[in-house]
Amino acid sequence: MNVVELYKDIKVKDGDVLVFGCSYGPDSMALFKTLLELREKYDIRLICAHVNHSKRSASEKEKVELEEFCNKHDVVFEYMKIEKYGDDNFHNEARNIRYQFFNDVVKKYNATYLLTAHHSDDLMETILMRIARGSTLKGYAGFKKLVKMDGYYIYRPFISVTKDELLNYCHKYNIPYAIDASNNSNVYTRNRYRKEVLPFLKKEDKNIHLKYLKFSNLLNNADDFIEEEASKAIKRVILDNKLFIDRYLELNKFLQRIVLERFISSFYQDDLILINDKHLDLIEKIINSKRSNSIVNLPNDVEVVKSYNELTISRNPSLISSYEIEISDEVFLPNGHKLKRLNEVLGNSNNIIKLSSKEVTLPLIVRTRKISDVMAIKGGGHKKVKDIFIDAKIPLKERDMWPIVVDSLGHIVFVPGLKKSKFDKTNNDFYDIILRYE
Q: CATH for 3-211, among 3.40.50.720, 3.40.50.620, 3.10.129.10, 3.40.50.11540?
C-alpha cells in the first residue's frame, strides 16, 4: 500500500496530532503501520486509543501486547475498559461508548484527525445490511471516508482497500495482531454477510468493492444536495422541536420523508439505527390521517404525538421507571429537558456546570436517583439528593425522573437546575467540559 496515496485526502503537516482507534486486530494494526510510515515523512504525534469491551478472556493479553508495541514505537497509549453495559443492543451501545472515548481522547490532545481502520469489505457489509433492513438515503451510503466533526475530522484511509489486502500487508511486514474469535460466529448478522454474501460477490467481480464505493459516493453526493434543500424546508416546517403539519404537507413527497428523518434523527442521534422504514411509515400515516390526535410508539419508550396541526417527539416518563444514559454532545431526557455539551457559555446559573476532565472520570452519565445518593456540594460538606429535592420543593412525581449527572466512578457532579458539586469550576479555573440543562 502506498502511504502517500492513502493519506492524499487530508492535509497532514508537522506538529499535527493524530488519534487512531486500534483493537489489535489486523485491520487496525495495518493502520498503525501506515501511520508509523507517515510519521517518517512528517513530525507528527500519534495517539493509540484502545477499548477493552470486556467480552473475551483474551482481551487483557491483547491490551498488554498492544501497549508494549506502542512503547516500542514511541506512540502514546490511551485505554479504557467497559465495565458494564445496559440493556441496549450490545453492538450499538459499544460503538457509542467507543466513539465517546475516541472523542474525549481527541479533545484531550487537541488532535487534528481521528483515524479508523474501516475498509471496503466493511463498507459493502454495511450497505448490504441497510438495504435488507431499510434505511435512509445517507444510511444506504454506508459511511464516508472523511467526516467533519466539532474541531477535528474522522478519516478512514482504507475505504477502498479490501480485507485481504490488509491481511497481506500485515504478513508482508510481520505486523503482530490478534483475531477476535467472535468474528467467526454466525450469531451476528454482519458475520453472515462477511462469510456468505461477500465471497459470492467477489467471485462474480474481483473489483466489486470499488463499485460499492462508487455507489456510496454517489449517494453521499446526492444526500449533500438534498441536505441543503431539507435545511431550507426544516426552517419553515420545524420550530421549537415541533413539526407543523400544514407546512409539512406543502412539501414535495420526497422532501417530506427527508424532513421527517431529520426530525427523528435530531432526537435519536447515535441511536438512529433503532429506527427503520416501518416506523417512518407509521408516522406518515398519522400525519395524513383525518384524526386530530394520534400517537406512534417508537423504541426506547419514545412516542410521536400528533395534536391537531403539531407533531412532537419525546420520551414518555410514564413508561420509564429508570434510565442511565451516557452523555454525548446532546442528550434528550425523559422529563422533556435536555443536557447539552457546549464549547463556551455565558452565565453561571444552576443550569450550567463547568468541569475538569482531570478531576472527574469520563464518560459522564446521566441517570435517575438512587436512595443512597449523596453529593459533595460546592462550598463544602455533603448533602443527600433527597434533601436537595425537598429544599427546592420538587414534587414527588418529578423526583424519580429528575436527572442526576455522575462520572464513571459514581461521583455525583451535578443535579441539573438545582445544585452543583464541589467539582464545579469558576471562570478563572481550568475546565474543559461545559454542560447546560435546558
A: 3.40.50.620
Q: Which residues contact 330 (CB under 8 A, 6 or more apart)?
A: 269, 338, 339, 340, 341
Residue 141 carries which side chain, given as an amino acid letter?
A
| Torsion angle, alpha carbons of 358, 364, 369, 375, to 10 | 10
- Note if the pTM is more than 0.90: no
Average the pLDDT over 227-237 and give the result: 91
CATH no. of 324-437? 3.50.40.10
What pLDDT is stored for residue 270 in this prediction?
46
- The segment(s) of the chain belonging to CATH 3.30.465.60 are 241-315
Q: Which residues pair with 77 in a beta bridge?
A: 48
